[in-house]
Design a protein that fits this description.
61% of the residues lie in helices and 0% in strands. It is an all-alpha fold. The chain is globular.
Length: 132
């Protein structure tokens, strides 16, 4: 009986944690859309010729339902910054602000947009490397 109660408590805690994390993500995404400095920072990436941590941005594109062919070299999963950067526009900011991990997915999703795939895509990247 105690195991069932503990399991239910753990599920409730995890649900609350997910809701809080989703609210934080939504708030930060809204800042990227509405705050002029943040907006300029994202849209200004288009001017860069070299991009560090490309797989992170590639994964963001995938989460926002951009097609692999739009952001990768043809027939590969290799992120191609030259073609991907043209998608950093108002539509990207709108998709970022409206992204929600919750809810039923009404249409079939390509394998590269699944969390398992994205997790593997980001393997080996540490927070320290990102912060540097």
């Amino acid at each position: 009986m105690d195991d069932a109660v503990n399991a239910k408590d753990n599920e409730e805690e995890e649900s609350k944690d997910l809701i809080v994390k989703n609210a934080k993500i939504a708030f930060i995404a809204k800042l990227f859309k509405d705050n002029s400095e943040w907006r300029h920072g994202i849209l200004g990436l288009k001017e860069m010729t070299v991009l560090k941590m490309r797989r992170i941005l590639q994964s963001v594109f995938y989460l926002l339902k951009y097609k692999r062919a739009d952001v990768c070299l043809e027939g590969t999963n290799k992120f191609f910054w030259k073609s991907a950067k043209k998608y950093l526009n108002e539509h990207f900011l709108e998709a970022l602000a409206s992204y929600s991990p919750f809810g039923v997915k009404s249409e079939p999703q390509p394998e590269y947009t699944t969390l398992n795939f994205l997790d593997r895509n980001l393997e080996g990247i540490t927070q320290e490397e990102v912060d540097a």
